[in-house]
Design a protein that fits this description.
heterodimer, A: about 425 residues, alpha/beta, Beta Polymerase, domain 2, Rossmann fold, 3 domains, 6-stranded parallel beta sheet, 4-stranded antiparallel beta sheet, 16 helices, elongated, B: about 270 residues, mainly alpha, Four Helix Bundle (Hemerythrin (Met), subunit A), 2 domains, 8 helices, about 75% helix
């Protein structure tokens, strides 16, 4: 059982290369099937996200050239020159593959440290490969363990708890005031990229009602259709500001949009219900004095950026904890791998000893005529029993061995002492 | 036996506090559950210690200052646990347990202080006292929740979030929890006060006016006002929380100054 990984990520390849080597869902399955049918890998899985394209596999016994063949296949599949692709590729084998995948699932290899999306992407890639019958017992076990470590790191460390983007930081703050947002309403002013990011966060949180407003009515309607939001006429603020619990303003205007008198009127109309205001516009869309009004929580883009920066530092301080968890799971996986190998080695050894026993008896009993066929069979049976006993005792001892290093060394010793190169599994 | 229960209670509450603090910091669900479990254990042994003490002194726990304080701590723990289960919110435990512990330790570490026995006895009187102490416990809890609200609101306003703000309950949940707690307090103090008047009516030698009556009615009125105002536009949010804290100051005054210096018939409740 030998694991191999060939891939590239945001650290090894610029975006121009990454986008050429990305796989669609169908391509990922197609590539996995090709690699199996061509004998390059026995089991395989392609993980492709915007920041990485990685091919995981179990190489066939005795095939030492899998990584090179994989790299060559990637060049052919994506129609790229080896001198362009090869420098961007990294190769890992065996334990390093396990460690790398576990770090990926934990979010330690992500551009945004600890981001949650990668775990879902690993899960989806695994499920597709599993349903496509391109994985096998080893990769199934490996990816199930990766999903487990991914969940554990997020549950037991602060790595995934703090928001890392301005939009998600804003939403987390809104949750500090209102709790879950699924029965709340939000008004988004502006229909640009920032507004889209915010709406995406609001949708992730199943916001109850979404209102949108934009200077261009057409764009507002398109935006509203896209995100299932109700359009509110630009400028009709007295009516619009009464409704939402969260207001996000990301409009490119020179003058302040939401003034203190306007917000005073709005708060009075809404019975002073708490209001979370995110001002993501530059220049600012909301008059700073609005932040002093009762029950209004105003955050500007600078405030949110500062929070994101603090969170980044806090997340980085959690890395050692997450790495310790990863190492714990790597050791568990290697232990499982060693147990499986032990079973394989013992099976091979049993077969080998029985073959030798048969040859030995045939040679030694060749000149002895007073043993009939039944006697010979009995002697053979006794010797088989002896072989079993000689095998079972060390096997049980090895299974019970707690120290992984000793277990692996013992398996290696059995291989070296009793098996020829031809017989080694 | 009583000592065993006291030590077990102290250990359970202390460990529970440590776990609640850890839960506040790490957010690990398992830690939170363990904290609740230990608090429940503490509650059980606390009850047994109160029972053993009452058996030992052949009287009710509120007969002396120590018993009253211990009973208050126990009822505060009961109220908190009910609130935790009802609102599924464990973070508050780290803020309530120090108060429970303070009352529990004070009850057993302070020198014994038995006052003049009260003239009233019987089930109605016992209910009057127990319900009154339960009301005070519920008001204490609402005070803690309001202080948490004010603290969190302040941190959100000045944008100093630190490590813990992300773990605190949402402001609106704190408000709801405070309302629930005040509602429990209002109902129990109303019933408790009514039962107190019934108990007094049954006495052969009925006492004259007690300033405690007036203060209790003021407390009841103030909390009723809070309950009403907290839902209005002008008061919802921080203002209502400040009023809740102010009301609890009245409760403390009623518990201390009024009981010790003004009321001839109320000692420790």
């Amino acid at each position: 059982m030998e694991l191999v990984l060939v891939g590239l990520n945001f650290r090894t390849a610029p975006v121009e290369v990454r986008e050429k080597v990305s796989f669609s869902q169908e391509q990922a399955l197609q590539a996995a099937e090709d690699l199996r049918s061509q004998g390059i890998l026995e089991e395989t899985l392609v993980l492709s996200t915007c920041n990485r394209s990685e091919v995981y596999g179990v190489r066939p016994v005795g095939n030492r050239e899998s990584a090179a063949a994989l790299a060559s296949y990637l060049c052919k599949f994506h129609k790229m020159q080896p001198d362009v692709l090869n420098p961007a590729l990294f190769h890992h084998y065996d334990h390093d593959v396990v460690r790398h995948l576990f770090r990926v699932a934990a979010g330690l290899e992500s551009m945004l440290l600890g981001e949650a999306e990668i775990l879902g992407q690993v899960r989806d890639a695994y499920l597709r490969a599993y349903e496509g019958h391109v994985t096998g017992p080893v990769l199934n076990r490996l990816f199930q363990a990766a999903l487990e470590i991914g969940k554990r790191v997020r549950a037991e460390t602060e790595l995934g708890t703090r928001p890392m983007g301005v939009a998600s930081a804003g939403m987390k703050l809104a949750e500090r005031i209102f709790g879950k947002l699924n029965d709340r309403s939000a008004l988004v002013l502006g229909a640009g990229t920032i507004s889209e990011q915010v709406v995406s966060q609001l949708r992730d949180r199943n916001i109850g009602r979404l209102y949108v407003s934009n200077r261009s009515r057409d764009k507002a309607e398109e935006f509203g259709r896209q995100y299932n939001g109700k359009v509110i006429e630009w400028g009709e603020w007295d009516a619009a500001l009464k409704l939402p619990d969260v207001i996000v303003s990301a409009v490119g205007v020179q003058d302040v949009l939401l003034t203190k008198p306007l917000m005073e009127r709005a708060m009075s109309a809404r019975g002073n219900r708490a209001l979370f205001l995110m001002d993501l516009g530059l220049p600012r869309n909301v008059e700073p004095a609005v932040g002093k009004l009762y029950n209004i929580f105003l955050y500007t883009i600078d405030d949110l950026t500062e929070i994101v920066q603090q969170n980044r530092e806090a997340r980085e301080s959690e890395v050692p904890k997450a790495e310790a968890l990863v190492e714990e799971h790597v050791a568990k996986f290697i232990s499982w791998q060693a147990s499986v190998e032990l079973i394989g080695v013992l099976d091979t050894l049993r077969g080998s000893l029985k073959e030798r026993r048969a040859a030995f008896l045939a040679e030694k009993l060749a000149g002895i005529n007073h043993f009939n066929a039944q006697d010979r069979e009995q002697i053979g049976g006794l010797m088989d029993e002896l072989i079993e006993q000689l095998l079972i005792v060390p096997a049980e001892r090895l299974r019970a061995e707690k120290e992984l290093r000793k277990k692996i060394q013992s398996v290696e010793a059995i291989r070296a002492l009793y098996l020829s190169d031809r017989e080694k599994p | 036996m009583t000592e065993t229960f006291i030590i077990t209670t102290a250990l359970a509450y202390l460990l529970s506090l440590v776990l609640y603090l850890r839960f506040l910091y790490t957010g690990k669900d398992f830690t939170g559950r363990l904290a609740t479990l230990l608090m429940f254990l503490g509650l059980l042994t606390h009850y047994l210690s109160l029972l053993m003490r009452a058996k030992g002194t052949h009287t009710v726990p509120y007969h002396d200052l120590q018993g009253s304080m211990s009973l208050f701590g126990w009822l505060l723990a009961v109220t908190y646990l009910c609130l935790e289960i009802y609102h599924r919110q464990r973070t508050v435990g780290a803020f309530v347990l120090p108060i429970i512990l303070a009352f529990f330790f004070s009850a057993y570490l302070l020198p014994n202080h038995a006052g003049t026995p009260t003239a009233a006895h019987g089930v109605v009187f016992a209910l009057h006292v127990t319900l009154s102490i339960l009301a005070y416990a519920a008001f204490a809890l609402s005070c803690v929740l309001s202080l948490m609200y004010l603290g969190e609101e302040r941190l959100l306003r000045i944008r100093r979030l630190g490590d813990v703000v992300w773990r605190l309950p949402p402001l609106e949940l704190l408000e709801r929890m405070s309302h629930t707690s005040v509602l429990v307090g209002l109902i129990t103090i109303a019933v408790g006060t009514a039962l107190g008047f019934v108990a007094v009516e049954r006495l052969p030698d009925q006492p004259h006016f007690d300033p405690k009556y007036l203060v209790t009615l003021v407390v009841l009125g103030m909390y009723a006002a809070y309950f009403q105002l907290a839902r209005t536009a002008a008061w919802r949010g921080a203002r209502a929380s400040k009023l809740c804290v102010f009301n609890f100051v009245l409760v403390v005054l009623s518990f201390t100054v009024v009981n010790l210096y003004l009321s001839p018939h109320h000692r420790y409740f």
